[in-house]
Design a protein that fits this description.
Layout (H helix, E strand, L loop, with lengths): L3 H5 L6 E4 L6 E4 L7 E4 L2 H22 L22 H14 L3 H16 L2
Antiparallel strand pairs: 1-2, 2-3
InterPro entries: Arc_rbn_hlx_hlx, HicB-like, Ribbon_hlx_hlx, TA_system_antitoxin, TTHA1013/TTHA0281-like
Organism: Catenibacterium faecis
Protein name: Type II toxin-antitoxin system HicB family antitoxin
């Protein structure tokens, strides 16, 4: 069983978001559900984040809650297979041809464009 120090040594990804309404910054760890903190400055938020991470892991160990390992980009190949209706396949192929790019490139463009819109 891993100890607090073992988990603290793992490279958990954190997200920093500027709080437009209240001011300051909010920091969360996507792999540690509910582990969130804030600070008036990025530096303060980062210091608070380490404290929050430690407190979250300590509480999880005490309560016997499963602690996720950090997600890694190494876990993803960059490929997936998608079955779509023939009519959609045709439409995508026609749009890609019109743009002078492969259908694969066109689909990556559409996915990234929509992902950027959803991330706002």
């Amino acid at each position: 069983m891993k100890t607090l120090n073992d988990y603290m040594a793992l490279p958990y990804r954190l997200e920093i978001v500027e709080d437009q309404e209240e001011g300051g910054y909010v920091v969360s760890y996507p792999d540690l559900p509910g582990c969130i903190t804030c600070g008036d400055t990025i530096e303060e938020a980062m210091n608070n984040a380490k404290d929050a991470e430690k407190a979250w892991i300590e509480a999880a160990l005490e309560e016997g809650i499963e602690i996720n390992e950090p997600d890694s980009i190494e876990n993803y190949s960059g490929q997936f297979k998608l079955r779509i209706p023939k009519t959609l396949h045709r439409t995508l192929a026609l749009h890609a041809r019109k743009e002078g790019i492969s259908m694969n490139q066109y689909c990556v463009y559409l996915l990234s464009r929509n992902d950027a819109l959803l991330s706002k």
